[in-house]
């Protein structure tokens, strides 16, 4: 039986973005063949796009690793130690651009099924509930009915209906 | 691949044999059962290799720097850029170089050139560690005092100690990519080494960019660790009611009077008592508990929280844009709890 996909909750490393934003992708290695056809897109990417990419993302270290007659692969390493390999044989340059950008923007979370799309460590801000939560102790020494304490609405629904009926009756007369 | 020109055939054959040897797993072995076109010696061989691999245990971790794709200078440059800071190369390199590494390199050189001391321009990071740690420590305390002006000094120290443990600093160091860059004799780097390197990086930043940038760095990476944490849990007061008596006395207010506000479910396992504490007929704290005694103690803790302005509904700490606009007074110091306790003891002694 194949292993189950692990499940969990969404999480950010070191409360990223609260103080400042740190891009979580730390290095990308492009492995490709210098002569094989299935690395064509990767070679085009390296020739035409790589310098712009490195200029706009100085925090990501790029390595190029030519290997003879093997499939081209993008290896992205993240700050939390996670590493992702993406095989891109016969991919055109444009698609490789998109995949490199995709890997750069990831935060390196282990792939998992998210149980919910939101998460909090503190589900309650009022603490443990008890029957007297938010009850004012002055209620203990108040005598009812009290004009200062509004126990129910000033006018009940029945009263309101009766009033409406009375108004209609007066109009008819 | 098959449609590719004949030039590639040799490579393919080589690839195939390599793939075969690489795929040493039980699934491969069982998958080929019954295929008689395969050589019969292959299965026992693969099984043997697989079992040997299992017996050998997991492969020990290799330092990232031993890989082919590793350029230390590029990594150093990217480290600073990633965190949005401008470091000088030499200072940053020094921050990552530990004394143990320098000693190891020196002994290597002495072994290879007997008697010759060699020309080593490595500088170790001890001064950066100490300057970084002082800066981290001072800034954390000043920042906490600014946000919790009524919180006693002992509590500030407890939160400071929590934030400067090796464990927490090592966790931060791991998550900003310090681990791979460390030059130290121990591998994998211990928590202590990671934590010290983080301190050295802060020291290096203060050296290159000035105190202010370094302090904002500490605010962004260390102080944000307080998000979602309750500072009251980091510092436990032994006798909350006694402390409350002392503090109220010092503030010349009436002594605390515990009163039962509500109760329900007595003599059942779900009993609840809510005790309120009054001073000069004013409610200064209340809390529920299973017994009146527990509730009274918790109410005293609640009253103290309100006196120290550390209640649950307090304003969040300032980070990001708000944190940039803080004007922190470095010389202020919070009142010490010790003072209140001493006051009581002196009075008892005199009476």
Structure notes:
Chain B: One of its GO terms (cellular component) is mitochondrial large ribosomal subunit. Chain B: This is Large ribosomal subunit protein mL44. Chain B: It comes from Lingula anatina (Brachiopod). Chain B: Its main location: mitochondrion. Chain B: It is found in: Mitochondrion. The complex is a heterodimer of chains A (173) and B (351). Chain A is α/β, with parallel strands linked by helices and 173 residues long. Chain A has a domain at 13-114: Glutaredoxin, CATH 3.40.30.10. Chain A is built from 4 helices and 6 strands. Chain A has helices spanning 40-48, 50-56, 93-105, 157-172; strands spanning 7-8, 25-32, 61-66, 73-78, 83-87, 113-114. Chain A has a 4-stranded mixed β-sheet, with helices on one face. A two-stranded parallel sheet of chain A has the order 1-6. In chain A, strand 4 and strand 5 (83-87) form a beta hairpin. In chain A, helix 1 (40-48) packs across helix 3. Chain A is elongated and about 100 Å long. The N and C termini of chain A lie far apart (84 Å). The model of chain A has no long low-confidence stretch (mean pLDDT 91). By secondary structure, chain B is mostly helical. Chain B has 2 domains: 72-231, Ribonuclease iii, N-terminal Endonuclease Domain, Chain A; 237-350, 2-Layer Sandwich (Double Stranded RNA Binding Domain). Chain B is 54% helix and 7% strand. Chain B has 16 helices and 3 strands. Chain B has helices at 9-22, 26-31, 42-56, 72-82, 89-96, 99-112, 126-147, 153-163, 166-175, 191-209, 211-221, 231-234, 240-250, 292-307, 320-324, 337-350, and strands at 257-264, 272-279, 282-289. A 3-stranded antiparallel β-sheet of chain B has the order 1-2-3, with helices on one face. In chain B, helix 5 (89-96) packs antiparallel against helix 10 and helix 7 packs across helix 10 (191-209). The radius of gyration of chain B is 32 Å and the shape is extended. The N and C termini of chain B lie far apart (98 Å). The model of chain B is unreliable at 1-21 (pLDDT under 50). Classes of the chains: A alpha/beta (173), B mainly alpha (351). The interface between A and B is large, with 37 and 44 residues.
